[in-house]
Amino acid sequence: MPAFHTLATARPEGHAPGRPDSPGGPESPGPDSSGRPDSSGGLGRPDRARLTELRLSAFAGHRSTRVPLGPLTLLTGPSGCGKSSALRAYEALARLGGGAGLGEVFPDPAGCVPERARPDAQRRRGFRIGCTADGPEGPVSLDVAVQAEPELRVVGERLAAGPLVLLETALRDPGRRAVQAAWHNGGSSPVTRAPLPDDRLGTALLPLRVAGKTDGQRRVLAAAEQMVVALRSVFACDPRPGSMRVPTPAGTGRLLRGCGNLADVLWRTRTECGRRHGLLVETVRTGCAGAVADVLAEPVGEGMLRAVLDRGDGTRTGFERLGDGELRYTALALVLLTGPGVLEVDPAGEVPAALQTLTVLADGLDRGLDPSQRAGLLRLAARMCERGHIRLTAAVSDASWAGEVPGARVVDLSP
Q: pTM value?
């Protein structure tokens, strides 16, 4: 499997690239193809917006890294090759797409700057990340340049559909907390110019600034909506076995990324969808030791719940007795079998759920799992991802075992 991080990011003719170790303008998207199978199995544009590529132009240990994304993508490579940082960049883009501020998304921005990056004449250093989203509007690319030092701010952003730049921003006056934005108009004036905040993603703000009166403006809005929808429905999951062994308060809401409130979620989902709960029990049965007749939660007093395995003979085994691998396996199976209404995600409420795709990000998917558990979990992921409403991008320490599962795309980030 080739290493993708050595591929250079393409630039359009006439674009003067900034230094790769300074927070200059974002790099131009590379070419993409719109002739992918759609959800109905034919060739054409898909009806669900989803990311098809992640670009880490200069981020942490990555330089000119391109990560192709499919319904089921496994990032592999030795420790330190950048698997976790790739997932961190993906999650950061998702949060920015949801309207979060830079300070909230990057609490330690200096840690995102490539280690050997040298400051420019103004002592500025930063990083660049981007992605491509495919959907009804065809491939749409987004590239963002962030200044981390001396202060955190967006210094450049580009939203494009092929060669057509739909939105471009640049920092013109470092003394102002704003970037100068220009977006495609398509009317008598080719572009509209206005300032935008330098602590937010401009693409997420376009619906509030673009009138949609011309064909060009409507195209900008449609492309921005596709990108935001593709980004927003993301659930970053890293089950913590220790937190799953202790009782949790009832009614705490949706499943958290550490899955510490799994008992509360089981209390809810067991009665809401019998078919999916049956699939969960079937999956847990193959990944946990001993007989498993049911997976449920039971009250333990004072409004608290604990998760248990019903052994079918009157015995109930509390999750506090299960191994780390059994707990992680069960939590990840529950995540793959549920959706935005159960998981702690913020989907685009203005778009029907049938046109959205939930993307699960899992760092260390195979951590603590034995061979049968990881194979069973991957088969479940392939089964769920094939339906189109869920996607999984995960980091694994070794993907040599993944070739047995159809549909799994392995991306080797080895140097």
A: 0.87
